[in-house]
Design a protein that fits this description.
Number of domains: 2
Shape: globular
Distance between the termini: 26 Å
Helix content: over 70%
Length: about 200
C-alpha cells in the first residue's frame, strides 16, 4: 500500500465531508473514500481484480450520490469507525487476552514487567472509552444537531481529540515508565510504522 497516499486521502476525507455537506456534494467525500479503499487494497489484488474493484467503487459512488444513501453513509461512517475502534480495544481486554496496547508495547521493545502491563492495560481501556464516547456523540449529533455542527465535530474535532491523546500519551508514558528505553517521539513513530500490525491484531 502507498502509505503516504493513503494518509493524504485519510486526512483529506474530513475536509471533504465538511465541503460536501455545506455545498451539497456528497460525491466529493465518497469519491475520496472510494479512492482510499482502492489504494489500501491495491497491493493485495491482481491487475484484473484492481480494475473490477475500481469499476465497482465507481458504480457504488454513482448510486449513492443519486440517492439519500450517500448522505446517510457520511453520517454513519464516523459512528462505525469510532465504534469499531472502541470494540477493537475493548475486546482485547477480555480475560485470557493481551490488551492491544500491551501487544504493541512488547513488539516495540518494552520490557515484560508488571508496571508495563498495568499501564498499557489502563491505556487500552482509555482508548476504548474515548472512542466509544465519541462514537455515541457522533450518533447523537447526527440526529439532534445542525448539519454544520455535526460535520465539524464528527469529522474534525473527534479526530483531533484522538490525535491529542496519542501525542500527550508519549511524554506521560516516559514519565510513568522511566526505566523503559526511549529514543524520541519521531523514532517512536517510525518504529510504530515498522511493526507487523497484522500479526499483532491477530494475537489473542
Amino acid at each position: 500500500m502507498n502509505t503516504r497516499l493513503a494518509a493524504s486521502l485519510a486526512l483529506a476525507y474530513p475536509v471533504a465531508v465538511l465541503i460536501g455537506v455545506q455545498a451539497g456534494l456528497p460525491a466529493l467525500p465518497l469519491g475520496i473514500l472510494a479512492t482510499l479503499v482502492l489504494v489500501a487494497s491495491w497491493q493485495s489484488l491482481e491487475p484484473r481484480q484492481r480494475g473490477l474493484l475500481g469499476i465497482l467503487l465507481v458504480l457504488v459512488v454513482t448510486v449513492l450520490t443519486s440517492t439519500p444513501g450517500g448522505t446517510w453513509l457520511m453520517y454513519a461512517l464516523p459512528v462505525a469507525i469510532l465504534g469499531g475502534l472502541s470494540a477493537l480495544f475493548a475486546r482485547s481486554l477480555r480475560a485470557g487476552h493481551t490488551p492491544l496496547i500491551t501487544r504493541y508495547a512488547l513488539a516495540m521493545g518494552a520490557s515484560d514487567r508488571p508496571p508495563v502491563h498495568r499501564y498499557t492495560r489502563r491505556l487500552t481501556l482509555a482508548w476504548a472509552l474515548l472512542c466509544g464516547t465519541l462514537a455515541i456523540l457522533s450518533a447523537l449529533l447526527a440526529v439532534l444537531a445542525p448539519t454544520a455542527v455535526w460535520a465539524l465535530v464528527a469529522n474534525g474535532l473527534n479526530y483531533l481529540l484522538l490525535a491529542g491523546l496519542f501525542m500527550l500519551e508519549y511524554p506521560l508514558r516516559s514519565w510513568l515508565l522511566r526505566g523503559e528505553p526511549r529514543h524520541g517521539f519521531l523514532a517512536y513513530l517510525l518504529e510504530l510504522a515498522r511493526v507487523d500490525h497484522h500479526r499483532i491484531l491477530r494475537q489473542p
